[in-house]
Design goal:
Layout: E1 2-4, E2 10-12, E3 16-17, E4 23-24, H1 45-62, E5 64-75, E6 78-89, E7 94-100, E8 115-120, E9 123-127, E10 138-142, H2 159-164, E11 169-180, E12 183-193, H3 194-200, H4 206-215, E13 220-227, E14 233-242, E15 250-259
Antiparallel strand pairs: 1-2, 3-4, 5-6, 5-15, 6-7, 7-8, 8-9, 9-10, 11-12, 12-13, 13-14, 14-15
Helix pairs in contact: 3-4
Length: about 280
């Protein structure tokens, strides 16, 4: 994937080629002190934006959660979907996902060995990366070196980064109540600004958002966010767009769903001897 820099430069990321030939990145009711009352009445615009911006803080207070991710990439009439499941520790700023790539032949279940990803502050670790990497080795990538800060490169947006990206939310509208996993949530829609979010983010994600602020062609990221009555983000869908050197551009929709708050999430970073330091083959054309 080549992400066009607003300054005219381009940054190529090592990718995983799916069968389409497209290189996709490295792969309610009641009230609460943490959130607004889940009623049918639409909150004022400022209150709506404030609740969205605070949702990352509520996740840190919750501690941890189970995660479902989906990343859909559209380019030149071709659509590719990457899905992941796992858990995330918001206090530690780390998590682990099993990411499934699509099957080149279009068969259900994916045609590639699932990739295990460990998300950590400033780093992305991948196992079963392929492209000449031994099966028992991990690949470590400094997310600060990626043009998008790993918002889309890894095939799944870091859940904390997705939430902290909402700290730049503006033009927020209340779309009403919905149910997710049996829980009543507020649905908000708006646009978030990457640069503003980077300035307000915690130290765990600030560097990644600062990298993304420099890499995308626009800072504006449309979103749909779903917040429960405790102010916790239950689901967020964010839409990224960049030129990528093709006439119609590339659109990436990243969806993160959170449930099972408080679930035990144990993330162990790979030991140095288990990290591959050799050359990694790039599948980017």
């Amino acid at each position: 994937m080549v992400v066009q820099d607003r300054r005219g430069g381009a940054a190529a990321a090592v990718g995983v080629v799916c069968g389409t030939g497209l290189a996709v990145g490295l792969l309610a009711t009641g009230c609460s002190p943490d959130g607004a009352a889940a009623t049918d009445q639409a909150p004022p615009g400022r209150a709506a934006a404030a609740e969205v911006r605070r949702s990352a803080d509520a996740l840190v207070r919750a501690g941890s959660a189970k995660v479902r991710t989906a990343m859909e990439t559209a380019s030149g009439g071709t659509n590719v979907a990457i899905r992941g499941t796992g858990g995330y520790d918001f206090r530690a700023g780390s998590g682990e996902l099993l990411v499934v790539l699509p099957d080149p032949a279009g068969k259900p279940g994916g045609g590639h060995q699932p990739i295990t990803e460990i998300l950590a502050s400033g780093a992305l670790y991948m196992k079963n990366r392929g492209a000449g990497v031994p099966a028992d080795k991990w690949v470590r990538v400094d997310t600060r070196s990626l043009a998008d800060g790993n918002l889309v490169t890894g095939g799944a947006t870091d859940p904390l980064a997705a939430a902290e990206l909402l700290r730049g939310a503006r033009d927020v509208t209340y779309e009403g109540k919905e149910r997710l996993d049996g829980v009543v949530v507020r649905h908000y829609r708006g646009v978030t600004d990457i640069g503003t979010a980077a300035g307000a983010a915690s130290g765990r994600t600030r560097s990644a958002l600062m990298a993304a602020e420099k890499g995308f062609t626009t800072d504006a990221v449309p979103f749909d966010a779903y917040v429960d009555d405790q102010g916790r983000l239950r689901k967020v869908r964010q839409r990224f767009h960049f030129a990528n050197g093709v006439p119609k551009g590339v659109s990436v929709t990243s969806t993160t769903e959170l449930h099972g708050f408080g679930a035990k999430v144990a993330v162990r970073l790979p030991d140095e001897p288990d990290i591959y330091t050799g050359k990694i083959a790039s599948t980017v054309p």
